[in-house]
Every structure is written in C-alpha cells, then in structure tokens.
User: Fold these one by one.
Assistant:
Number 1:
Amino acid sequence: MAKKVLVIPDVHGETFWKEPVQRYIDQVDRIIFLGDYLDPYPDEGREYTPQGVFDNLMDIIDLKRANIDKVVLLKGNHDQHYASEMFRDLACGSRCDTINWNIYNAVFVRNQDFFKLVHLEEINGIPYLFSHAGLTLNWINKVNSSIWKLADNKISLADPDIIERINALDDNDEGQELLSIIGRYRNVIGPKSGSVLWADIEEHAFPDAPKVYGLNRVFQVVGHSRLKEEFDKIEFDNLALIDSEQCFIIDEEIEKKIVPFSIQIIISPINNFQISQALWDDFSCLQSFL
C-alpha cells in the first residue's frame, strides 16, 4: 500500500491541524509536526489566551501519547527556549512567555521522550528529512568539528546513525550551545547559517544542494521561515518550505513530492507553488520574521 504522510508546519497556538488529523488519522501512515507549538504571533487580529495555547499544546502531546509510533513531534526554537534553560539564556526567541515559562518547561521536561529534533523517513525511495528549520552545510560542519570529529565522507544526512547523533545534541550542554547558533540573516555578525532550530531559508544553499554530507541526496521539509498568505510553499529540488498555517500531504501515489492538504479531498494539488528564481531573489514570498 502506498505510504501517506501528513505534515504540519509551525502551529504557534493555532488549531488548523485538528480537523485534518481527526478526519484522516486512520488513512495516513505518519503525522509529523515541525515544531513551534507556542508563542502566537501578535499581529494576526486573533484572540489568544494562555490557557488556550497551553491546551492546544497538550492536545498535541495527547495525540502523540495515543499514537506513539504514528505521530512524530519535532521541536522548534519557540519550544526549545522552554525546554532548555541554557538554550533560553543563549538564544531566546521573540514572544517567549516568561510569565508561564516554568509551566511550559515542566511540560517539555516531563514529555521529553516524545520530542526530537529531526526525523528521517524514506518515501517513494527518497530519504525525506524533516526538521523545524533545516540542516545546512555550515552548521553540520560546525557540529562535526566541535563534537563528532568524523571524516567528511563518513557523514551523510541519509544515514540514520547521523540523524541519531543530531538528535543526541539535545542531551547535553555542548549540544545546546550548537543548537543556539543563530545565523547571519538574523544576526549580522553571526555564522553563515543557524542551527536546525534557527536556520532561515535564506541561509540554505540554492538552487542546488551541495554534495557534502549528502545534502543533495535528501529532500528536506522545513518550517520556521514564515510565508505570506498567498503562498502555500516554496520548493527546490532538495527542500520545501511549508510554513503557511496549513497541513501538507506526501503521498507515494502522486508525482509531486509534497502538496497542500485539503479537508475536502485528502490530496489537493491546488495552489501548488513552485517558486521562480526572480521571486526568490527578492524574497517577496516571505513575511518579516519575529
């Protein structure tokens, strides 16, 4: 049977994920959240309450608990600054709820085994690599030179052992320092690219992924860099950015690598947006970051 994967980008207190999950949880093989469950945007004209944001997070955790193998919960920078006090002190994101920090910290600590940084899954013969902000050559090189100290030809992002090493960065202080790296797009004196929690889309290599570390072998699916309302996604040969407040589907029965989800029909290719180089050059599809 053809594999189907439901992918949910940055949540930020929103509930757009609920109806697709409730309707189709039994029809998909995997449900993958890309992180950033908390810290709603203040400029949406919507009403949020701390209790509502908290309950939404707990609903997601309960979904994971009830579907332990089917649901994958990845962390974003807006989760990590609650999960790790060290990360918060080094690289706290905007909109951090300092009043309720202890409550959220307790939730992430208590449920730490439910969350990870990256997820690798083969779909239709392609190694799909899911994370919040994506993996870049420069940051992997920094991790390797700081901790792993492996020969470059021993590192492939299509290798489950390397993915396990990346997830293990969440387990110690040295790893938190590397996860806290903010790239040059947000920090003009920073490194060329941020971590798997912080890399902005402008910090990835386009249009062609480099061969080093097997970046050209995987297809990355990321959020973090928020798109304007008129765009569903931007996509290159080796990466799709889908931070557009809607769910996406990957289906082995269709040709496209990832398409927007519609609750009317489980596969919906409408508004499937392939970015033009001219549009990419002026980043006009991206919202200002916060």
Note: The first strand starts at residue 4 and ends at 8.
Number 2:
Amino acid sequence: MRLRLNAARASDSIGRTVDKRIRMRKQVSAVDIVGLAAVATILSFMQAPALAQTPAAHKLADGKPDFNGIWEALNTAAWDIQDHVGQLGIPPGLGVVEGNEIPYQPWALAKKKENFANRKTADLTEANCYLPGVPRITYMPYPFQIAQTAKAIAFSYEFDHALRIIHMEGQHPDPNSFLDTWMGDARGHWEGDTMVVDSRNFNDQTWFDKAGNFHSEALHVVERYSLTDADHMNYEVTIDDPKVFTKAWKMSMPLYRRMDKNAKLLEYECVFYLQEERYKNAPFKK
C-alpha cells in the first residue's frame, strides 16, 4: 500500500510539474509574441519618418526641375574612373565606367599606360592647375554650384574658379571658326525632366582622371542630369572620340546636394598655392 501511495504521489508531483512547465512556456510564448509585435510597431514608426524626409524634386515656374544649389560627387573617380586599389595618396574605389572597361584603340591603351607612369608631370591639371575639362570637373573632390534660368544655366566650380555657361538655345558654332578650349563649347536642351548638355570643341590637353585616361581634340561629351529627389541627382555622361576609342562609352554616378548650414563655394586658389610652393619669396605673397 505504501509503495502504491508513494507511486501515486510521485505521479501527481510529476504531472503538476509538467503542467506548470507547459503553462510557463505558454506564458513565455505569449510574452515573446507581444514583444515582437511591439518591436515591429516601433520599427514601423521609426521607418515612416525616414521615408517622409525625402522630398520630391522641386519644379520652377516654367515647369522644369529645379537644379539650383550646390552639388558634389562623393566617389574616387577623380583618382581613377575604373576600379582601383588603394595606394599612398590614392583612396581605393569602385569605378564609374559602365562595365569597368574603356574601349581604347591599341595605340591609345599604350598611351594611357605611359600617361599613368608620368602622371606627376604629365597631368596638367595636377601639375600646373590647368582647367580639368569635362566631365572631370564634375567629380573632382570640390563642390560646384548651378544657377538656372530658362535661356542659360551656369555651372560655377570651386576648383580654379572654373565656369561653364550652358546655352539652352542655339547650335554649336562651326568648329572651323571656333577655337578648341579646355572646357569645350556646351549647348543644352531638355528631354522631359532631364537636362542634356552636349559639349564639343575641346583641346586634347585634359584627362578624365589622375590615372592617365585621356582623349583627343575630337572628344564629344553628352551629359544627362536627372533629379531623383530634391537633394540627389543621377549624372550620366557618354564619351565619344573616334580618334582614341573603338566605340562610345558611358560613366554614371549620383550627385549630392550640399546640405551644410550656409553652404557656399569657397576660394580654392590653385594657381596661387602652386606659385607659393614654387616661388617661396615671390612678391605676390604681400
């Protein structure tokens, strides 16, 4: 009898323990479900304002997108427009060339390698503060400002006080009567909400980057600026030069509006700094 009673008591005790554990598990599961639901609710509230903080692109009175403001590229294309590893003074970066390949003619590829080997003196923008050309001026590590009107759009660059006036009316002048220039002759038009800038009449003295990628005086550049929202734009550029490349090729990258308080272009006096370095006791320092 005692054995049976002890067995019955033990069985009751085990049953109560199992029931208690099951109830605890149900309670824990319920708490977990409530907790997860609370976390999901909090996250949904956190995400909603972030989406709302991206304003749509503004439009001007004439219905065109508003590009006015200060913009800057945030990449390493100024050092090399193709994929590259880091080196002393060169940050690593992903390329901006579509497919990461530039279709050089065989002689031009050899020239590009020669340029790279002699880049410290052969790159006139770096060595002598000459104007960098287009599209290089866009992705140098300096901001630029756009001032927009219906008939013309002005691009002012912090580097070297460079200025481009994009005429939104008229055609390119006869190349035989127009001198080749460092920044080319630019004409613009609209394709929907995209600003298209067609530039030609370049000289052959500028590069696309510090890595020696180059062109001839036959360079033809077509840039496409498209706002993705009020503070970001997509920049796409098509390069064509039958003297250097086997076919046209493209680069693309995002550009960012500078949101700093009181943002403005500052003075980057490249020529003055270069003169200070080369001529230590020059009278222009006074």
Note: Strands lie at 69-72, 144-148, 152-157, 163-167, 185-191, 194-200, 220-229, 232-240, 249-257.
Number 3:
Amino acid sequence: MWKKVIQCLISLIKGMAETNNVIKEDIPKDEVKEDKKIEIKKVMTLKKGDRGEEVKKLQTLLGITADGDFGNKTDEAVRQFQKNNGLVVDGIVGPKTMFLISNMETPDFSILKEHLPEVVYNQIADTAENFNINTKLRMAHFLGQCAHESANFKFVSENLNYSAKALKSVFGKYFPGDLNEQYARNPEKIASRVYGGRMGNGDESTGDGWKYRGRGYIQLTGKNNYADFGNFINEDVVSNPDSVSEKYALSSAAFFFNKNKLWSICDKGSTEEIVKKLTKRVNGGYHGLEDRINKFNHFWDILK
C-alpha cells in the first residue's frame, strides 16, 4: 500500500514540475540546426492570457500578428500547429511545441520551378522567407489565389479600361448621370476618380488614384498600402510605384496575406471549405471560386 502511495506522490511531483512556468530542457545538440543558432536551456511555457516579448517571438514564428498578446488568434494558431505536427492539442506552448516551432524550416519549393513562369519562380525563395510561407499548405493556398487573381500570373497591373456601360455596373456610385460617358476607355481618368480621396490618395486632381492603382498579383492599391508595404520591405515604393509590378508582384501579394492575417486560414487544411473562406477574405465574395479551388488543388498536388 505504502509503495502505491509513494508512486502517486512521485507522479504528482513530476506533473507539477511539468506545469511549472520555467522548465529545464535537455535537447540533443545534434537536433538543433547550427545555422539557426538556437540554444534552448530553459523553455518558458506560454499559454492564453500571457503577454510580452516572448509571446511576440512566438507569434512571429507562427506568421501571425506579433502584438505580444496571447489571445484567441494565437491560441488558435498554436492548436493548429500542434494538430499539424502530431502534438497534444492543448494550446499550451511547452518545451516540445516551442522546440518544433523554433526549428521550423521553410520547405524546399524547388519542385515549383517546372510549374511556374520563371519570373514568378525567381521570387519564391525571398517571398517565402520574408512572409512566413513556411509550409507547403500555405504556399499552395497562396499561389492558387495569386494565379486566379492574375489570370495565371499574366497581369501585374490593374486593367481599368472600362466602357461606359461597365463603369455604371462596376463603379456606378462614382459616375452619376451620364458622367460615365466622359470617362469611358480612359484608365488614368477612371483610376484618379475612383481611387481619389481615399486610401491615403489625394483627390482626383492629384492623379494619385492612377499613380497608386492596383499592382502585383493580388493588387496592392492606394498610397497608404504602398507606404506600408515599402516600410515592410525597407524600400521606397511610394516614390517608385512601378517597382511593385516590376519587382515585387509576388511579395506585395504575400504582404496582403500577412497584413490581413490570412495564413491562419491557410493552416486550417486543404478542403474546399477552407479555399472558400480564404476567397471571401481575398475577393470580398466568392467570384471565381471554382477556379480558385482548382488552382489550389493543382499546386497542392505538386507540393504535398
């Protein structure tokens, strides 16, 4: 009987140690990648409700907004990571979960070379590294949406060559009466009117609407968004907006995913329902859903 009591006490003490806020971790040195210079001697357990710099680091690794607040979004991202990696799904970042997250490696996407235009493939490595595209699932969702939005990577700038009838249909509120007749088939005038006075652009007379029209595979639009993207990549694209279409067509699209917290949707799986949810956030509706599903499946079949 006493033997059983002692065993129970030992188990209880071990359980308390495992839930302690700081846990000593002995991880074999050969499991830690030298180039990442990760030295894990003490691993803090992080959980919902925690705040601070360690939470920010965790959020950055997970590819979500790093606000330092372990709230619902972070809890959801952690649980999804645990599920994807065969861990206990409890939302608590203990030693094992933290070790796996810290040592995530960007997959080898070289197989995509045979399936993408050269100009797109050449941007894959930098875009994946800079925008947390650290799983094949994320890349498949991302490329599927980009391929649809750009007609298979053909268009890197917004087509605003609307007829008078199309202007009424698409941008009717900006063209009361017969004003559409004066703007038809004049892309620069159309953009300046439709995008003028919003998204950080000056009014119609400044021409900012045209200068900061949609560019990239998922069209970056508006001076404020150009500025935010430029700050992220540490380059002045406000002064050189054409660089978004000429140099950063893929990166600007990844920035859109980052800014709008779309990676957490990508992480949920490969079902048509997930593609539908992602499409809603990208498109505002479900335009071209069938094609988006087909394109996602195409890239997922290649990568998985």
Note: Confidence is low (pLDDT under 50) at residues 1-6, 8-42.
Number 4:
Amino acid sequence: MKENVDLIRRWRTSAKIYFQIQNPKSEKFSFRLGQAATSSDEFGEIEGLVPTVYSTAMRIVALANQKGGVGKTTTAVNLGSALAELGHRILLIDLDPQANATSSFGLQGIEETSLYEPLLGGVSITERIFPTQRDALFIVPAHLDLAGAEVEIARMPNHLTRLAETLKPLQADETFDFVLLDCPPSLGILMSNALAAADELLTPIQCEYFALEGLVKIVRLVEQVRDSGANGRLEIGGIVMTMFDSRTRLSAQVVAEVREHFGERVYETVIPRSIRLSEAPSFGKSILEYDPNGVGANAYRALGREFLKRHAPPATPPE
C-alpha cells in the first residue's frame, strides 16, 4: 500500500517531465497526467499503454445504489481492473467522500487530489488524474473534502450539471474508453451530478430481500433526472447481482425476482460472496492482483467480458 502512495508522490514532486496518455483515436497527445521522474525507466509500466480494443466513443457509467454495503465500490474497482486487463483504457472517478475506491488502490492519505476543486471550477479534471498499479487503469482519487463540495455545489445555479461540465475535456479528447463513476451511497448532490453526467447507470444489488427496495428508489431517481431535463440520455444500463451465496435459497430467489422484473437488464454474471474480495482492499489491490485465479477474480473477468459484449458496436450489415 505504501508503494502505491509513493508512486503518486513521485508523480507530484519530481522533475518537470510529464508522461502523457497517447490517444489512439487521434495523432495528438491528449493531456498530461502528472509529474514523472527524470528517468522514464521508473514508470515504464505506465508509459505507452496502447489498448487492444476500442469503443467508438468514451462512455460514462455511473455505479450507484443509495443503499450501502451492496458491493458498489468493489464492483467499480474490480470491473475497472478487468476492463483494463482486457485492453481498454479506464478512468475510475471516486465520488464518495469516504474514499473507499481510493483506498482500494492504497492511495488514501494523498491530499489535494480529489474532484473538489474541478467541481467548483478551480482546476481542470486533467490535473487530478493519477495512475494505479494496473496498466491502463487511472483514477481521480477522493478525499473527505468532497463532503464540503456537496454544500458548495448546492448553492450554484448549475448544481445538477457541475460534474457534466467538469468531464467535458475528457469527452472532447476521448482518451479513455470508459469512465466509471463510483457514487456515494446516498441520494445527495454528488449522486445526482453523477446521474446527470452519465450515459448509463450500472447498479450492483446484494442478493438479499431489502436490496430490492433500494433498486426501486434508484429507478425512480433515474426517471426524475430524465424528466428534469438534466440528462435525457440516461438509461439503466445494467444490474449486477453481488454477494451471491449458493448455500442459501434466498440468494437464488432474489436473483430470480430481479430477473423477472428487469429482464435482460440483469447481467448473467453473478458475483459470489468471497472472503478474498473483502480482503483485497486492505492490501491496496484489486481482486485480479490479490487472488488472480480465485472465484472473485474469475467472476469479475466474466463481468468485464459481458460488459464489453453489451457495449460492442452494432455489426455492419453486409452489402
């Protein structure tokens, strides 16, 4: 974990030589990520990341559920890692002041790195993007100061679209294939901003009865965002069943009931309950690094493949 923090600190305090993420869709370089060491060898594992598969345009996916403890951050971290492993360039934005996604990569304790200033218009989001130990996976870390941002954003006239405005440089540049927004477990300003900025919502649902009530509320919130005019393109892109326990009937019953109501929106891949998934964040690693051959890692790899299949461009009909 300390190695991950040191990596970020070296980026921020070393000589003024900058790494840039090369944009595969353009001849130009996209933007600088941060300061690098004078020798590129130290960051060789980050330099020159060229994905093997590209989507047609950057897509913003909000991972949200106002109920806590459903595996939302676990899914954001490990789905992002799986997509990066599959060759896509991923940006994970930690919008939760608790900064659990940030600590999952061992990056907690780094100050002045959150989305606080970009949301308020102080700096560009490009100044808050940092590498993780996983190639092609980058993060905008969170900090407790995001809790204060909720209060300040609420006073602004465009309070629902602040995040959408903040993300515009990334949309124009299209350096990343997917941007994953890890939302706080509440129906506050930050989650509303995420839904107003996202192309789709991905909702993790724990395989327990009360999780169904939370799903109904999040569906209503999506409808409100659309009806308000803040984001008419928002759709429910998928529902992921998490913490599935094959030893209990309840898990199977909850999955069956959710599938009955939401049909194909529910992913076929089900994430099992796993001690390894719970342990991985304490080591500052995703499950793909912590237990690469375990059931949790295999489940998130399968989820990544299914996610990409759902987002594959439509086949061109033969002439």
Note: Residues 7-55 have pLDDT under 50 and may be disordered.
